[in-house]
């Protein structure tokens, strides 16, 4: 649990947006599967070939899942996050109070 003496969090390098962009290929795959045979353009997909064609999409989803799991604090509960937010808000309140006191002291001496 972070405390008022903990070091600031290091900036996180997010995975590229392409890591999570598996919906268009999935849509294309399903479209090929659901094409009416009478409207076939030669790009239709037989249900027996679905697993082979879906392999690349499955790998992309696994990579996206691994990328999310690699992000910091992904294992923290909502309660832990809310507790940290409350601690940080209290710290901000205290710092604002000190700033007001310093500003007031500066006005009195100036």
What would you say this structure looks like, in words?
The chain is an all-alpha fold and 110 residues long. The chain is built from three helices and no strands. Residues 1-5 have low confidence and may be disordered.
Identify the notable features of this structure and list them briefly.
58% helix; mainly alpha; disordered N terminus; 110 residues
SSE arrangement:
Blueprint: H1 23-34, H2 50-69, H3 78-109
Helix pairs in contact: 1-2
SS-based class: mainly alpha
Sequence stretches where pLDDT stays below 50 over 5 or more residues: 1-5
Helicity range:
55-70%
Q: Main β-sheet: number of strands, strand sense, barrel status?
A: none
Mean pLDDT: 86
Q: Distance N terminus to C terminus?
A: 43 Å
How many strands? 0
Short description:
The protein is an all-alpha fold. Helix content is 58%, strand content 0%. It is rod-shaped.
């Amino acid at each position: 649990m972070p405390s008022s003496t903990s070091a600031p969090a290091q900036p996180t390098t997010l995975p590229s947006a392409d890591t999570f962009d598996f919906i268009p290929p999935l849509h294309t795959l399903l479209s090929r599967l659901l094409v009416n045979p009478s409207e076939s353009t030669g790009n239709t997909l037989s249900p027996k070939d679905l697993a082979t064609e879906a392999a690349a999409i499955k790998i992309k989803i696994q990579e996206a899942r691994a990328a999310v799991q690699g992000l910091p604090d992904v294992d923290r509960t909502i309660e832990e996050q809310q507790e940290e937010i409350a601690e940080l808000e209290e710290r901000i309140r205290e710092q604002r109070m000190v700033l007001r006191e310093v500003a007031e002291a500066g006005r009195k001496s100036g």
